[in-house]
Amino acid sequence: MKLLLDKIKELQHKLSVQQHVDSYRLLHGRGRCFEGFEFVNVDFFQPVLLLVFYKEPPTGWLDELTAYLSDKLSEQLSCVLVQRRYLVNAPSEIVMGEMPEKVFARRGNLLFNLHLNAQQNSGYFLDMESGRQWIENHVRGKRVLNLFAYTCAFSVVAVAAGADKVVNVDMSSPALNLGRANHQLNNFPKDKTEYVAENILKSWSRVKKPGPYDVVIIDPPSYQKGSFIAEKDYAKVIRRLPELMPNGGLVLACLNAPELSDEFLRQQFEEQLPDAEFIERLSAHPDFPDVNPGQQLKLLVYRVPRFQIESA
Quick count: other Cβ atoms within 10 Å of Cβ 67? Predict the structure, then answer.
């Protein structure tokens, strides 16, 4: 418990000197780098502390923690929320305080709507920070295609960083509606973004139409039955890149599948688009250490060359 209490003390200090604290992961137990904490991740979305359990915590562990938080952080924390991923449907439970009517992820001056108590995924993935930093540095003045956009957090960062236009594609209309709301929340001009609710693998003409693109972000689910299975479908996306970016550009290829290595992703590019140049694998964010780096989130950057389109 001492390790987590020390991290909570660090949070307490941040809250004492900053009015707003960026959302971050206090403890990444699932990376198995902290003995005795393998069952839990702890995230902070001001003013909510989120505990995600992957198995039942030791007897008395949660009571001890909430007693400490109630004593030390009751004024700064509105709520402590527990999500039990080891149970069917990953139910959530408020164990301290009350959930605010609205909760946001914060990244500098940017805000992102969250639905912490509604479903398994919050709507904002803290482990993607290395990807967001890369986007921030590479999209100014560019036309960006955000594939598998979900709630469009990449798009929010891209627009803030000066992207000329971002086209967000996802098969879920509700997710894209949240994405649109995220842009409105940050007071971005409507003409900077476009939202396409389509099954990407079945709608390439619709995806291609707003192009050509200078930067393409590929961030699919690793396994979503009936829509996308990375092991067999990632190649289909890579194969389409010449049509989407005939003038060449940069690709951020993401894969969050511990069972698939970055070598798997590199092989897909070698087989489907051998002319693409591998640039780098982005380092995992320091908040997400893992005893097996090969299982971490994969963020690979490629440069796609300009393609000579032959006329009929």
Answer: 12
Residue closest to 216 by CA, chosen among 191, 189, 247: 247
From the list 259, 255, 205, the residue with the least C-alpha distance to 233 is 255
Which two tokens mark 256?
Answer: 């969050």
Half-sphere exposure of 47 (CA within 13 A, CB side): 18
Structural domains of the chain in order of their starting residue, each with its CATH number: 2-100 (3.30.750.80), 126-304 (3.40.50.150)
Question: How many residues are present in the chain?
Answer: 312
pLDDT values of the chain reduced to their tens digit, one per residue, 312 residues:
889 999 999 999 999 999 999 999 999 999 999 999 999 999 999 999 999 999 999 999 999 999 999 999 989 999 999 999 999 989 999 999 999 999 999 999 999 999 887 667 788 999 999 999 999 999 999 999 999 999 999 999 999 999 999 999 999 999 999 999 999 999 999 999 999 999 999 999 999 999 999 999 999 988 777 778 899 999 999 999 999 999 999 999 999 988 898 999 999 999 999 999 999 999 999 999 999 888 889 999 999 999 765 543
CB half-sphere exposure, 215, CA atoms < 13 A: 27
- Whole-number Å distance between alpha carbons of 301 and 294: 17
Q: How far is CA 103 from the centre of its chain?
A: 17
CA distance linking residue 108 with residue 22, whole number of Å: 6
Single out the residue of 294, 220, 235 nearest to residue 269, CA to CA.
Answer: 235
- Contact (CB, 8 A) for 44 and 11: yes
Type of residue at 237: V
Q: Both tokens of residue 106?
A: 């914060």
